[in-house]
């Protein structure tokens, strides 16, 4: 049997080698189909939008957990190696580092070729703001912000929940993340319906985002960018973001790269006056995007190592307590 940290390590390597092949079935697509199907059913069944949204979120999460748990129970009757392979593949589908890097570098390549129309289109694929009027600096900032935010959503949070609950943990998190991506908008259609989806995502990312924000300055030191500024801006600006979680990584990335992120931007034609994060100490260039991708990759590796050490210590302490009869005594009490 392959220990969980090694399963997660293999899954990270698979993601680095394969990314997300477009023709392969992906759990997130099926989670989205389930959620959208349930949205149609609950909206027609409940007059109260918030109730409909709560039922949709709960049923989607329960469905994903039940399906994943059933799969894991079924493979227990097969040779251990088969179970390990299934576990690794499920964890692999929940990690999206390679695809995020690929999309960001595509924006960088288009900017380097001064193809502004292509740059705006490509950055629109990884961020929610309006991109039609962005200049080169705006495109760079939007890309770096997306890399910083999705470092948690697509990489470190899934790894965190993989360590907590293996394939079941990572699929539960991906269902919550997908619900937020579909319904977690503060517009007329989803302000009430997506209430629970947004709250669940905020709660699920609370710990991973803060751990990641603290690790980014260390990654900055390794990458040769400003670790001191990364930590300084993290401490100063991490709470300026509208999201309770996104500001932790965005501020650390902004400080490391010497960029000022955030600020007023347009969503669906509506200008939102977002606060600035970071100081503009360096000129944004296409290379800033490359540096953000490298920072994301190093942060991922450090995050994995940290959790692998903590997991190993936890297993050791639990085993030691069991051998010493501490756990048995506590249960007896």
Description:
The chain is mainly α. The model has no long low-confidence stretch (mean pLDDT 93). The chain is 74% helix and 3% strand. The protein has one domain.
Work out the radius of gyration: 21 Å
Mean pLDDT: 93
How do the strands line up in the largest sheet? 1-4
Number of domains: 1
Helix content: over 70%
Shape type: globular
Strand content: under 5%
**SSE string:** HHHHHHHHHHHEEEEHH
The N- to C-terminal Cα distance equals 34 Å
Largest sheet geometry:
2 strands, antiparallel
Task: Report the total helices.
Answer: 13
Assembly status: single chain
Number of DSSP E strands? 4
Structural class: mainly alpha
Query: Segments where pLDDT lies below 50 for 5+ residues?
Result: none
Give a short overview.
The protein is mainly alpha-helical.
Task: Summarize the SSE layout with pairings.
Layout: H1 4-18, H2 27-45, H3 49-75, H4 80-93, H5 97-112, H6 116-124, H7 136-183, H8 195-204, H9 206-223, H10 227-237, H11 246-257, E1 261-262, E2 265-267, E3 270-272, E4 276-277, H12 286-324, H13 326-332
Antiparallel strand pairs: 1-4, 2-3
Helix pairs in contact: 1-4, 2-3, 2-7, 3-7, 4-7, 5-6, 5-7, 5-12, 6-7, 7-8, 7-9, 7-11, 7-12, 9-10, 9-11, 9-12, 10-11
Summary tags:
333 residues; mainly alpha; two-stranded antiparallel sheet; globular
């Amino acid at each position: 049997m392959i220990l969980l940290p090694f399963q997660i390590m293999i899954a990270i390597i698979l993601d680095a080698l394969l990314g997300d092949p477009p023709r392969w079935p992906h759990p997130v697509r099926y989670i989205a189909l389930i959620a959208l199907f349930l949205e149609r059913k609950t909206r027609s069944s409940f007059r109260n939008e918030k109730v409909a949204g709560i039922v949709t979120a709960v049923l989607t999460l329960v469905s994903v957990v039940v399906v994943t748990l059933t799969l894991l129970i079924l493979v227990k009757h097969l040779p251990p190696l088969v179970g390990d392979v299934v576990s690794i593949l499920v964890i692999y589908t929940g990690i999206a580092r390679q695809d995020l890097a690929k999309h960001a570098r595509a924006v960088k390549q288009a900017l380097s070729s001064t193809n502004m129309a292509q740059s705006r289109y490509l950055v629109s694929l990884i961020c929610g703001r309006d991109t039609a009027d962005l200049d080169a600096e705006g495109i760079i900032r939007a890309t770096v912000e997306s890399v910083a935010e999705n470092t948690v959503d697509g990489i470190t949070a899934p790894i965190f929940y993989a360590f907590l609950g293996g394939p079941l943990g990572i699929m539960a998190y991906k269902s919550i993340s997908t619900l937020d991506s579909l319904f977690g908008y503060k517009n007329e259609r989803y302000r009430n319906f997506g209430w629970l989806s947004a709250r669940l995502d905020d709660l699920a990312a609370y710990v991973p985002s803060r751990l990641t924000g603290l690790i980014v300055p260390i990654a900055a030191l390794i990458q040769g960018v400003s670790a001191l500024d990364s930590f300084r801006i993290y401490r100063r600006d991490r709470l300026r973001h509208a999201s309770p979680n996104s500001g932790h990584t965005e501020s650390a990335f902004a400080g490391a790269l010497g960029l000022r992120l955030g600020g007023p931007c347009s969503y669906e034609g509506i200008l939102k006056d977002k606060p600035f994060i970071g100081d503009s100490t360096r000129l944004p260039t296409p290379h800033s995007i490359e540096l953000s991708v490298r920072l994301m990759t190093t942060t991922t590796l450090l995050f994995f190592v940290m959790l692998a050490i903590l997991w190993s210590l936890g297993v050791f302490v639990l085993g030691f307590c069991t051998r010493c009869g501490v756990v048995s005594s506590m249960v007896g009490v």
